């Protein structure tokens, strides 16, 4: 790997910060999603966040309290040798309702403190502007990204960040897993689907608003801090055909086509032809203007970042019981792959395949900003966690992206594992679905001391970074 390869970890504000009303922060979409029986329907935009009984537990309100533990946590990241840390800023911590003319100084100062702490340890901050959170007021007033009003509000928010952190943040990501809008609309974009609304119309119009807002933010970044770079982000993973049946192959092609839609626009600067035919045939109106076309064409991204957890499998005719869901993507069960404890397919080679697909399609530098294994961890009496299963998972994936770089010649900027410290799962709201190198004493009901401790994988990853990925031996930390 190149000497400046950015090894590190990743998290999201709504899954680690807590302090949900501290420092003037306003309510955000994730603060409205409870743990438990109603969560999935709310995430999918099928149940309104108010349509739940009283007394629900909202895990984002405290999360793991990074808001007060950030110095301790960053020191642990530095101990591992992180070269980079990808995190997000909560829109409602900077603009509590999203409608203010001036930003919340206390919120900005918190993020400046985090960035300065990272820079103290020579850790490169990689900042996601919008990671699964929309201010509640914008949901209530505008229906979130259903409304074109969101474009200017997002641009205002992004512009404040660029001006405040000019020279300190070199890598920005506009929207986390932007394609999640199509799969879990409320989780991805704060969108509730009203009864009688045309789902396709709502989601493609919302997608257009997000894409234009991202392009306008990219334009603003280049005007304010031309040395910084803007990336887009996709929840990646190629769709395989279930068989050589031409119908399965076509099903996979169509699924990939839809999944690449956002990145086609953000990387190429224009809508793919198939969308124009779809919109005409189905009467979908996205409100495209000449100015939209111009800003999209002139403000494509500098690099493509991605999360990778698994590939997916497409079958034209799914029989009852054949479907599986991994990271919100529905498909057929791939009989050649093992699964995680949460049913997500495990496909290390698929990471190399996916990187090749993205590079061949876009010819822009890539950045793996999420990859990891959600698993149950059982601390020993002395507090240690022997997570050899996590080490094995990460080792196999690192081997594959190294091959993509060293054999396939793909330019890869870095690798930041997901949930470098245990955090609240976005999909399930659980703490027990752990990803981190650092164990946090907190359970699914919000009980625990919040104490941090190092897992075996902590020491293993430290050695991986020290050797720039050359020593992946599972026993190298002992």
Automatic annotation (TrEMBL):
One of its GO terms (molecular function) is 6-phospho-beta-glucosidase activity. GO terms for cellular component: cytosol. Its EC number is 3.2.1.86. Keywords: Glycosidase, Hydrolase. It holds the Pfam family Glyco_hydro_1. PANTHER family: 6-PHOSPHO-BETA-GLUCOSIDASE (PTHR10353:SF296), GLYCOSYL HYDROLASE (PTHR10353). GO terms for biological process: carbohydrate catabolic process. Belongs to the glycosyl hydrolase 1 family. This is 6-phospho-beta-glucosidase. The keyword Ligase does not apply. InterPro entries: GH (IPR017853), GH_1_N_CS (IPR033132), Glyco_hydro_1 (IPR001360), Glyco_hydro_1_AS (IPR018120). The active site is at residue 370.
């Amino acid at each position: 790997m190149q000497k400046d390869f950015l090894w590190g970890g990743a998290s999201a504000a709504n899954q680690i910060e807590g302090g949900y009303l501290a420092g003037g922060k306003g309510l955000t979409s994730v603060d409205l999603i409870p743990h438990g029986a109603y969560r999935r329907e709310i995430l999918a935009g099928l149940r309104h966040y108010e349509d739940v009984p009283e007394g629900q537990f909202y895990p984002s309100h405290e999360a793991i309290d990074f808001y007060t533990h950030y110095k301790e946590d960053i020191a642990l990241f530095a101990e591992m040798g992180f070269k980079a840390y990808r995190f997000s800023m909560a829109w409602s911590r900077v603009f509590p309702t999203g409608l203010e003319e001036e930003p919340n100084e206390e919120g900005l100062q918190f993020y400046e403190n985090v960035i300065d702490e990272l820079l103290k340890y020579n850790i490169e901050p990689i900042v996601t502007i919008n990671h699964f959170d929309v201010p509640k007021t914008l949901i209530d007033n505008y229906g979130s990204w259903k409304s074109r009003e969101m474009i200017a509000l997002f641009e205002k928010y992004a512009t404040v960040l660029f001006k405040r952190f000019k020279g300190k943040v070199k890598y920005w990501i506009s929207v986390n897993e932007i394609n999640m809008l199509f799969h879990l609309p409320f989780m991805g974009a704060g969108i509730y689907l009203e009864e009688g609304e045309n789902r396709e119309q709502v989601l493609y119009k919302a997608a257009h608003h997000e894409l234009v807002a991202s392009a306008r933010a990219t334009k603003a970044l280049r005007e304010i801090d031309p040395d910084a770079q803007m990336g887009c982000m996709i929840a990646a993973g190629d769709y395989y055909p279930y068989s050589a049946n031409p119908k399965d192959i076509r099903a996979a092609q169509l699924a990939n086509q839809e999944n690449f839609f956002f990145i086609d626009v953000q990387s190429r600067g224009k809508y793919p032809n198939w969308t124009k035919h779809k919109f005409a045939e189905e009467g979908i109106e996205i409100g495209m203007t000449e100015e939209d076309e111009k800003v999209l064409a002139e403000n494509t991204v500098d690099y493509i970042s991605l999360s990778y957890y698994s590939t997916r499998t497409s079958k034209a005719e799914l029989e009852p019981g054949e479907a599986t869901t991994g990271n919100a993507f529905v498909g057929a069960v791939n009989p050649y792959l093992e699964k995680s404890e949460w049913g997500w397919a495990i496909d290390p080679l698929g990471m190399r395949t996916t990187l090749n697909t993205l590079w061949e399609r876009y010819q822009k530098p890539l950045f793996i900003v999420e990859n990891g294994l959600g698993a149950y961890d059982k601390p020993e009496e002395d507090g240690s966690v022997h997570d050899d299963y996590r080490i094995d998972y990460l080792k196999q994936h690192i081997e594959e992206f190294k091959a993509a770089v060293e054999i396939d010649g793909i330019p890869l900027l870095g690798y930041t594992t997901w949930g470098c410290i245990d955090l609240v799962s976005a999909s399930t709201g659980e703490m027990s679905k752990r990803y981190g190198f650092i164990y946090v004493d907190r359970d699914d009901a919000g009980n625990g001391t919040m104490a941090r401790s190092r897992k075996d994988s902590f020491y293993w990853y430290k050695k991986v970074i020290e050797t720039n990925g050359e020593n992946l031996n599972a026993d190298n930390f002992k």
